[in-house]
Design brief:
Peroxidase, domain 1; Secretory_peroxidase; Haem_peroxidase_sf; secreted; 320 residues; binds 2-acetamido-2-deoxy-beta-D-glucopyranose; hydrogen peroxide; single chain; Peroxidase, domain 2; binds protoporphyrin IX containing FE; globular
Length: 320
């Protein structure tokens, strides 16, 4: 075959693949069916965030967990049923809370435009809203996701663990079609929120035969964390904010990682591997670059495993 024909064929294949992966989602999906959808969601999220400063971080993390397990299909919102323990009861669910905010928005949406806006879209829009509200960027959320009917606690083992090294993290993201840049940019979500001791205490005591504290962590920071999480810690609420401005969406997280103050081994690992270190340094230096790349990666994350043959749930915690 002549080279030009092959090139043309490749060109069309690429075109087809691109349009296939974007076919479902659309920024204007509810323009005619529920033009007030985003305003209703914003109001519910905003109101809840004013009453409880923990809400923004929780809703951002909810979106990540939802998309990583079975795709962005609101499986994280479903309750357990007889004989099936739901995803939200899987071990890593610690701190994934504030489900009531999504329910509140959904109840108002059902009144305004019945059976129209999927719970998966509510989660995606809420995640954007909390980022913007916290001082981060704004972007148009693509919509048109459908809600799934399956939710299994045992599938949460598919989430990356805070003990993961860079190779494991890169693999976990690649399995969802996300690249190394997406991994680093999205880890910047740790500019918001809090962690319990249990998620990082293995770095503080008897880390390895030669090191009591994880040597990738700054010594000062290690001592600070040990004070917050003493060995026979009884306070189950004890822990550490993920960056020093934990309710502001900024690039402080990356600055901290460059000085050994990433809270999780998985945060710090991004600085210890040449494949990811360059991105960490770039984002630490240039906040607007981080914002642009975070937006691009959130849009990609929002496309993971989107289903077409699902339903629009009437209540987010039960399948229709
Ligand atoms: C790269 C792999 C990731 C790992 C291993 C990881 C792990 C964790 C862990 C262990 C916690 C603390 C849970 C607790 O002890 O309460 C946490 C919190 C959090 N994560 Fe991640 N995460 C990752 C990626 C992400 C991504 C991609 C986002 C969003 C874009 C995100 C957003 C958050 C937020 C906002 C919190 C704070 C939650 C709160 O304050 O309630 N994480 N993460
Ligand atoms: C705002 O939040 C409070 C507390 O969560 C709730 O009682 C109230 O109904 C909410 N108001 C609106 C307008 O959503
Ligand atoms: C998380 O899972 C534990 C059991 O693994 C359960 O006791 C807890 O209620 C769950 N939390 C939420 C918010 O679903
Ligand atoms: C989870 O459990 C279901 C049955 O309840 C099983 O079919 C599935 O393979 C399990 N998945 C994983 C990841 O263990
Ligand atoms: C990362 O962890 C995996 C699995 O535990 C291990 O096989 C691999 O050698 C580790 N890679 C690095 C770079 O530490
Ligand atoms: C520390 O870990 C080593 C194995 O790595 C173990 O033999 C030792 O008993 C541990 N020490 C304490 C105090 O837990």
């Amino acid at each position: 075959m002549d080279g030009r024909i092959i090139l043309k064929a490749i060109f069309f294949l690429v075109l087809i693949t691109c349009s296939m992966t974007n076919a479902v989602l659309d920024a204007h999906y509810y323009d005619h069916t529920c033009p007030q959808a985003e305003r209703i969601i914003f109001e519910a999220v905003h109101n809840a965030s004013i009453n409880d400063a923990k809400v923004p971080a929780r809703l951002l993390r909810m979106f990540f967990h939802d998309c990583f397990i079975r795709g962005c299909d609101a499986s994280i919102l479903l309750d357990s049923t007889k004989g099936n323990q739901a995803e939200k009861y899987g071990p890593p669910n610690i701190s994934v809370r504030s489900f009531y905010v999504i329910e509140d928005a959904k109840t108002k949406l059902e009144k305004a435009c019945p059976h129209t806006v999927s719970c998966a879209d509510v989660v995606a829009i809420a995640a954007r809203d909390v980022v913007t509200m916290s001082g981060g960027p704004y972007w148009d959320v693509l919509k048109g996701r459908k809600d799934g009917r399956i939710s299994r606690a045992n599938e949460t083992i598919g989430l990356p663990a805070p003990t993961f090294n860079s190779t494991q993290l890169i693999k976990s993201f690649a399995q969802r079609g996300l690249g190394v840049k997406d991994l680093v940019a999205l880890s910047g979500g740790h500019t918001l929120g809090f962690s319990h001791c249990s998620s990082f205490e293995s770095r503080l005591f008897n880390f390895s035969t030669s090191h009591e504290i994880d040597p990738s962590m700054s010594r000062d920071f290690g001592e600070t964390l040990k004070k917050k999480c003493p060995k026979h810690n009884k306070d189950r609420n004890a822990g550490q904010f993920l960056d020093s401005t934990s309710s502001t969406f900024d690039n402080d997280y990356f600055k901290r990682v460059t000085v050994g103050k990433g809270v999780f081994a998985s945060d710090q690992a991004l600085y210890g591997d040449f494949r990811t270190k360059w991105f960490v340094e770039s984002f630490a230096r240039d906040q607007s670059l981080f914002f642009r790349e975070f937006v691009a990666s959130m849009i990609k994350l929002g496309n993971v495993g989107v289903i077409e043959n699902g339903e629009v749930r009437l209540k987010c915690n039960v399948a229709n």
